[in-house]
Write a structure and sequence with these properties.
Layout: E1 3-6, E2 11-17, E3 22-27, E4 32-39, E5 60-69, E6 75-84, E7 89-98, E8 104-113, E9 118-127, E10 134-144, E11 150-159, E12 164-173, H1 177-185, H2 190-206, H3 212-223
Parallel strand pairs: 1-3, 2-4, 3-5, 4-6, 5-7, 6-8, 7-9, 8-10, 9-11, 10-12
Helix pairs in contact: 1-2, 2-3
Length: 226
């Protein structure tokens, strides 16, 4: 794993699409890291002429993101989305350490698993004794579309400072049958209703992408019934 130093006041922002990501960031004072790791089917033409990592959806991917905030006033944003079918498998692992105070971090990781797909999330969030005035949030939400799909999640929160705001949470469930019934009663066929609910579950991750052109194209891909 190569180390990437984000110097004071600098910003690193990138979308990684359909690849295994292995990143280690060291953030100096006032720096900003914002990354999206997306494992999902899409039309290759949507990213034409856009600076983005892109390839076909892998059968298996392992994503490991390590962030160390060593300077005050840093901000970190990690967004991950995996929409998997067949025998596809994705592991998402994050390790965020607030070594000093005044920083913020936000993690939102979502999995949608169909067929025999497998997902795994390991989230490690640490706030050191000297990291007062830190605000950190970690959220993992998972949607199972098949009885054969499998999700494992292990969020971890270690807080050694007193004056902080920190939350973490994880949940795994299925589509809301009452919502499906409600939509079908209003003339939407079951398959379309399922896709609309899945899209609604995923879209808040895509909405955090700063590049408006890419964001809209990815959202339009959802609307095309992947």
């Amino acid at each position: 794993m190569s180390e990437i130093i984000i110097h004071s006041g600098e910003t690193f922002e990138k979308v990684f699409l359909n690849e295994s990501v292995n990143l280690h960031f060291v953030q100096e004072a006032g720096s900003h890291v914002k990354i999206h790791v997306l494992n999902m089917p899409f039309d290759n033409s949507i990213t034409r002429n856009i600076d983005i990592s892109k390839q076909s959806c892998p059968t298996e991917a392992k994503n490991n993101i390590v962030v160390e905030q060593v300077g005050e006033g840093c901000s970190t944003e990690i967004y991950a989305l995996a929409y998997l079918h067949g025998d596809e498998s994705v592991t998402a692992e994050t390790h965020v350490t607030h070594a000093v105070g005044g920083g913020t971090s936000n993690q939102l990781v979502k999995f949608v698993l169909a067929d025999r797909a497998r997902g795994s999330f390991i989230g490690d969030l640490k706030i050191a004794p000297d990291a007062q005035k830190t605000e950190a949030h970690q959220t993992n939400r998972n949607l199972l579309l098949s009885e054969d799909a499998e999700m494992r999640t292990r969020p971890q929160l270690e807080i050694y400072a007193d004056d902080v705001k920190a939350t973490h949470g994880a949940s795994t469930g299925q589509l809301d049958e009452s919502a499906l019934f409600y939509m079908q009663q209003r003339g939407i066929d079951k398959q379309k209703a399922r896709q609309l609910l899945v899209n609604a579950f995923m879209i808040d991750v895509l909405n955090t992408i700063s590049d408006e052109t890419l964001r809209e194209k990815l959202i339009n891909t959802l609307d095309s019934d992947l």
